[in-house]
Automatic annotation (TrEMBL):
It holds the Pfam family TetR_N. The lineage of its organism: Bacteria, Bacillati, Actinomycetota, Actinomycetes, Kitasatosporales. Keywords: DNA-binding, Transcription, Transcription regulation. It comes from Streptomyces lavendulocolor. PROSITE patterns: HTH_TETR_2. Residues 59-78 bind DNA. InterPro entries: Homeodomain-like_sf, HTH-type_TetR-like_transc_reg, HTH_TetR, MftR_C. This is TetR family transcriptional regulator. SUPFAM superfamilies: Homeodomain-like. The keyword Kinase does not apply. It comes from the Bacteria.
Amino acid sequence: MPADSLDFLHAPGSLHPLDPFDAAHRPPGLRERKKLKTRVAIRRATHRLIAEQGYEATTVEQIAEAAEVSPSTVFRYFASKEDIVLSDEYAPAMADALRGRPAGEEPLESLRAVLTRTVVALLAHEPEETRRRARLMAEVPAVRARTTRTMAATSRALAGVLADRTGRGADDLQVRVLTAAVMGALGEAMVYWAERGQRDDLAALVHRSLDTLRGGPVL
């Protein structure tokens, strides 16, 4: 792994589970830190319970007890159990990273750089949660459906940045199609990774997926 591929990560033990491009951001205030601490506690409790007893057997009431909060607090932070597993807290950081890519870089290559660095960061900071999330995407229909919504929201955020970078309109169809295809490729790479026992290099699978978007499948 290149030495500079991890220079955007928080140090181990950071409060935030992952903000791979946070180095240029100001530290959050006390209120934001408290909210973040609660979100992290809920997510960690959820993943621990799922690991112990399975996804379907894990209830919001159990999650609340394990996180030492009330069920209403869980729902104040997350709309559903699927949201806890798949909450996308990284879209703003990914959008900022996309803004920082070289101005003349091809859009697909800019998106490739952002996605692969995010995958590396997830595996470095949340290896077990990332693996469990991918398995649930592959195995649980409700999680797979929620994944589609989460990735669509991230796609819209990236499309707005890409439109600005390319001088196109905020609702440009080609920009929307490109970012949606890239996020779809990421999702399929993760499911493929999970279905094959997570033996492969996930970042390499993302690269392969994006290569398919560039030239079409080689059959």
